[in-house]
TrEMBL record:
Any one biological process term the GO annotation gives: photosynthetic electron transport in photosystem II
Name of this chain's protein: Photosystem II protein D1
Chief location bin: plastid
Residues passing through the membrane, by range: 33-53, 74-99, 111-131, 143-167, 179-199
Family designation: Belongs to the reaction center PufL/M/PsbA/D family.
A family per Pfam: Photo_RC
Membrane topology of this protein: Multi-pass membrane protein
Organism annotation: Solanum lycopersicum (Tomato)
Assigned GO CC terms: photosystem II; plastid membrane
Annotated GO MF terms: chlorophyll binding; metal ion binding; oxidoreductase activity
Superkingdom of this protein's organism: Eukaryota
Sorted UniProt keywords: Acetylation, Chlorophyll, Chromophore, Electron transport, Iron, Magnesium, Membrane, Metal-binding, Oxidoreductase, Phosphoprotein, Photosynthesis, Photosystem II, Plastid, Transmembrane, Transmembrane helix, Transport
Amino acid sequence: MYFNTGRIHINQLSNHSRDFMGYLSSARLNHSMMIHTLLTATSVFIIAFIDACPADIDGIREPFSRFLLYENNIISGAIIPTSAAIAPVRSATTIFLIYPIGQANFSDGMPLGISCTFNFMIVFQAEYNILMHPFHMLGVARVFDGSLFSATYDAHGCFGLLIFQYASFNKSRSLHFFLAARPVLGIWFTALGISTMAFNLNCFNFNQSVLDSQCRVINTWADIINRANLSMKVMHERNANNFPLDLAAIEPHLQMDKILT
């Protein structure tokens, strides 16, 4: 009798859980949750556009504000960026939590707002040269792959005729998983690259100049990016002494030989 009552309780729990899951997946609940979520997001969006707390970006006790009530126009108004609002949890956690913890200063994190976001991106590029990081390159490639495959969505069934037999997708689920997995993996790799930069692990970068057998610099696009980073760093930190990386990489006796000759 004890086992029968236990089985009855288990069946009742399974029925309740099945009803609860059916209620969560019902169209009526989804519509109501969508309305409440959109209203909340719209309200927060408008409040942040009109009035929000200024952010101390550089940590020098000079608040940086881009809001309408602080005598700014609509173009420079600090709107919560859509990319940050719909980004995966991994990248948002990296930008807002892991990077400030690695730098031991929460003023180094990215504030909400269009102007603050672009300021954070430019300063991050100037400090770490994230464009030459392989994880960032892999992330950008995966996101562009997802965009390309999504644009050619209708032609995926014909890829077997155009390329080779196994290039086409026989099931829609495998195709949809492929379209969703590539950009998600790319964003994860980009977040991993930023996480390594948070703890100043900059050894994976391809920011070294290419030298020939006589230690002469072979000009590449990487050198142009390095000089652009140096100029951005000088504009951001005017009181700091920023020595060029291409001069710092050359031995002192080679510099003296160039001066004497």
